[in-house]
Amino acid sequence: MFSVLSYGRLVARAVLGGLSQTDSRDYSLVTASCGFGKDFRKGILKKGMCYGDDACFVARHRTADVLGVADGVGGWRDYGVDPSQFSGTLMRTCERLVKEGRFVPSNPVGILTAGYCELLQNKVPLLGSSTACIVVLDRSSHRLHTANLGDSGFLVVRQHYFNTPFQLSIAPPEAEGVVLSDSPEAADSTSFDVQLGDIILTATDGLFDNMPDYMILQELKKLKNSNYESIQQTARSIAEQAHELFACDNGLNVRGGKPDDITVLLSIVAEYTD
Amino acid sequence: MPPVFPMLTVLSMFYYMCLRRRARTATRGEMNSRRAIESNTRALPINVEIVQYAKEVLDFSSHYGSENSMSYTMWNLAGIPNVYPSSGDFTQTAVFRTYGTWWDRCPSARLPFKRTPSTFCSQDYVELAFEEPVYPTAVHILETYHPGAVVRILACSANPYSQNPPAEVRWEILWSEAPSKVNGPQARQFTPCIKQINFPTNLIRLEVNSSLLDYYTELDAVVLHGVKERPVLSLKTSMIDMNDIDEDEDEEKFACGMDALNKQFSIVTLREWPTNGYFDKLPYELIQLILSHLTVPDLCRLAQTCKLLYQHCCDPLQYIHLSLQPYWARINDTSLEHLQSRCTLIQWLNLSWTGNRGAISVSGFSRFLKVCGSELVRLELSCGHFLNETCLEVITEMCPNLQELNLSSCDKIPPQAFNHIAKVGSLKRLILYRTKVEQTALLSILNFCSELQHLSLGSCVMIEDYDLIASMMGAKCKKLRSLDLWRCKNITESGIAELASGCQLLEELDLGWCPTLQSSTGCFTNLARKLPNLQKLFLTANRSVCDTDIEELAANCTHLRQLDILGTRMVSPASLRKLLESCKDLSLLDVSFCSQIDNRVVLELNANFPNVFIKKSFTQ
After folding, report:
1. 3-class secondary structure per residue, B254-275
2. Any stretches that span the bilayer, and where are they (chain B) (predicted)?
3. ipTM of this predicted complex?
4. Statement: the pTM of the whole predicted model exceeds 0.90
5. pLDDT at B346 over 60
6. Which of A79, A124, A126, A127 has the most B C-beta neighbours within 10 Å, making it the best mutation to test the interface with B?
7. Which pLDDT tens digit goes with each residue over B497-507?
């Protein structure tokens, strides 16, 4: 009797769950990162996640998954300043703000602003500037909130049900900005709903400048499931392809790419499991 | 083999006796450590130890960081370590506002209260809440830079996460020690041997004394080890406990002294004696003088011995200067009520850190001041979270002679309530560090309190326009000698100009972390030329301070004793050399994170100017 009752309850719940339009499950981002410094050294070089002058972070909090990329402006090298110090510190600071819960998921610009303010609070006099892009997934509301300052960017790619091809939902903004003269509040901010299986590609201009969208989509198509290993593999393959586009053979740049640091964060919206 | 058993019994008795004797003769520290180990090993099998990092920082007396940021703030003590085991000066740690004795050696230094017991040396505190209440078995403090500041660890019986207000708030000292010098800035995990307590706790308080440190101490995280069930004590351990109670002088003093004050002061059932023996031959004043060396709890105890001494101990002349800060955990409305009758002549009163968690009520505080406020000259109320607008009103009404008022970190006082302070025209010192004082209230204080000599406005976040404040100071506060504007967000060269031309007696100026001051506007040059009496100048983290500023200081401010120019890229060794040559009194020079001043330069300057403490902090 008891088993029948509980079985019935399960069935009822399944039916109701199927009928209801709102998805009560929490979402999360499964994210892998890969990148190259333009001086052909691969992988994590400095403390934290830095590729050349680029830096990135992936952080989780109770209410949201947050990731970000920043591209340190290389011109500072002429002044004897390591450009990665600024971008790296900015990303590490944003990561800490997220981990400590000092942010509101719907306000990614706030993370950038607070991170920038913390840089000014450092006893060490930091010099430099960087572009930055922050992506926040609100677990329960299934909304993606983004902030973008400069020429880094992100793509959201959704696979349609009946074998329809991948489709671009949002393109990286073309406008170029410089952090030094802009306040972090100047960042473009957008919010939109996401679904399970949506792919979010966050990267610095090293990727978007070198690799056309169709090539990126082609690579993304190869992504079959949402486990970390396959995401990591796809991320690496995208970064490698972009890297090869400007890699020189025998000192000759035959493919016409622009040498730059590349940072790729590839995420899939999946059901939240803890 | 029957004879073996009696033999064993005799042996075990002998062993037991030895143990008892050892327990009695052992010093306190040894016993504590042994007891901690014993209880640990005993507790483990039946009772799993819980290890927790702090969940939240509830309260603290000061910090280096800004109120709207995380860097160098006490809030960094919550959660897992960010820096440990690295050593160095990192933003992710908790840093207090001061170190060493530098702040006691400037014009704004306050006189210490007499009768402070030697066991109390805390200068700052921080209170941490943990998730689960436990019987603590160990407390680990991860100190990542210049360790050695923690002098006391206390546990509270009240659960900060409980919905019901606690019937009784008890604080127990888990560990305490006099400050000791730790050599070097290297990180360490500090694990003192803590006392066992008989209630579960999830509220831990650290008290620090940084006076022996060479630089700011930085704390990364606090780990609380403990068990859910009360550890079962064996016969042996409880025996040691019994002995411990007899020998534990300090804690008894702390715990019972103020209880005696509360309970037994009012009951006078002392027998009448015809004479007081030799005491009758001593002059009244001499007995008074002898008693003036006693701490307050000792005075309370002495009052219970005989009628003559009771009379002496109740003489209001014994309570001209009264500091209740060392007994913050025990002071409540009742103790104030009992002290009331003998504090009618009180001039200095220190109630800092007291009265929190409902111990002192607004009405209790008001009643006390109504009786004892008339002669009051100095009132210290740092971290008094019970203070509200009514309290400030009572202070201004009842204390017409007040000259010094310390409200630092009283962050529960509403912004406009500070208006009342303007009525105390005799005010010479006002400390509003980390309060919510707002602009109009402060303007009216400055307008009416023209006697002000020392003013601290550090980290006052509610003030919108510091230039307005500075120009009011320049116009009205001609007697200002020290001014603390640490972390004021928007003062500019125009405010500085009005300040420098109006307050020419300034000897001490803290402009640390004022990011809107630009050297290119000439503000620092202006300061140096207008304020020749400057003894202390903090320009901490002003990235624009340059050689010109240093040279102007060298030329004009020859009495300079303390200078902080941390974090500027623009100052060269040559200008520092000039400064050191012309400012002979200079004893503190902080050049941390000045990129042109490397370790080699510091070594060279140290060799040529051995009397100057040149500070150079590091991150790695």
Report:
1. HHHHHHHHHHHCCCCCCCCCCC
2. none
3. 0.83
4. no
5. yes
6. A124
7. 999 999 999 99
